[in-house]
Design a protein that fits this description.
This protein is of the alpha/beta class. The protein contains 9 helices and 10 strands. The chain has 2 domains: about 5-185, Rossmann fold (3-Layer(aba) Sandwich); about 200-315, K homology (KH) domain (GMP Synthetase, Chain A, domain 3), CATH 3.30.300.20. Strand 8 (about 225-235) and strand 9 (about 240-250) form a beta hairpin. The two termini are about 40 Å apart.
């Protein structure tokens, strides 16, 4: 009988969660960028091997929320940790523990999930603050105990600690081994050749946004939204062709020339890179048409946020 587990991958923004999920799956299913708050949706990655299947929920990073979209992202991150078999908290241990790291530790100490994995990521960096994170966990437990109901006799959970380098196969495999140790026997949840069930429109939008972040990450990364308007599927010369129309949303008119770039160089860079990635991701020939649209306050517009997949059952 195979072993199966659904895992909520959580942690503060830019801790390396998406890189770890991609490494575990063996394919790119989640957007990766040095810019904080890159992941905006909960993305499901599926790992199948002879031992069974691990289903990974890659979540938005917890951060100090600003605006409606920021609050939605934090709510999605917290809810994704609930109702899973394993809570996997990823820490960037090349940096000292931050407030958001402490917050996740306190949440784990308070809610006492049965199975918890603490991943100390970026173990190849120096300095590496393993002991500071372990001390922070002890302090988090003490803080929660001092403020909790004295009648609660439930023993605190004790996480399994793993040091990882999510950019290497060996580092990711240590995490996967620990997750399979938590898994229980059961039927596979997905076909063995499935690596994600993330909606293709959202995956394409994430791919395009990733290219923009690589090009203009210092200007307007969080005020830029991508909305896939249509995917026209055709067959040409025996090859499936997708003609994709995309709206790129900005808040102000002054941001539009930044997104387009001098001589439309930014748009050309984004389109070329996204067409390549989408073609590889879906096994088709992708042609992407990009239009930049000024939409003041789009980050507070429920209809637009819903179209982008940021709301779902969270409203």
């Amino acid at each position: 009988m195979p072993k199966v587990a659904v895992v909520g991958v959580v942690g503060r923004t830019n801790a390396g969660k998406s890189t770890l999920v991609n490494a575990l799956v063996g394919e790119k299913v989640s957007i990766v960028s040095p810019v904080e708050q890159t992941t905006r949706n909960t993305i499901r990655g599926i790992v199948s091997d002879p031992r069974g299947q691990i289903v990974l929920l890659d979540t938005p990073g917890l951060h100090k929320a600003v605006g409606d979209l920021g609050r939605l992202m934090n709510r999605m991150a917290r809810r994704s940790a609930a109702g899973t078999d394993v809570t996997c908290v990823v820490f960037d241990a090349s940096d000292e523990p931050r407030l958001e790291d402490i917050g996740w530790m306190q949440r784990v100490a308070k809610e006492k999930p049965e199975k918890v994995l603490f991943v100390l990521n970026k173990a190849d960096k120096a300095p590496f603050y393993e002991m500071m994170f372990r001390d922070a966990w002890v302090e988090a437990q003490n803080t929660v105990a001092e403020n909790s109901d004295k009648e609660d006799k439930t023993p605190p959970c004790e996480p399994v600690w793993v040091k990882s380098i999510s950019t290497t196969e060996g580092g990711a495999n240590r995490v996967l081994d620990a997750l399979f140790d938590f898994a229980l026997e059961g039927e596979l949840l997905f076909d063995e050749d499935t690596v994600t069930d993330y909606p293709r429109r959202l995956a394409i939008a994430d791919c395009i946004r990733e290219k923009f972040l690589a090009r203009i990450h210092q200007e307007i990364p969080h005020e830029l939204g991508v909305l896939v308007k249509s995917i026209d599927e055709k067959t040409s010369g025996g090859k499936e062709v997708w003609n994709i129309k995309v709206d790129v949303l900005v808040n102000r008119s002054s941001q539009k020339p930044i997104v387009i770039g001098r001589g439309a160089q930014t748009i050309k860079f984004v389109r070329k890179g996204a067409e390549r990635d989408v073609s590889e991701m879906f096994g088709v020939k992708a042609s992407i048409e990009v239009w930049v649209r000024v939409e003041p306050g789009w980050m507070k517009n429920p209809r637009i946020l819903s179209d982008m997949g940021y709301m779902g059952d969270l409203v």
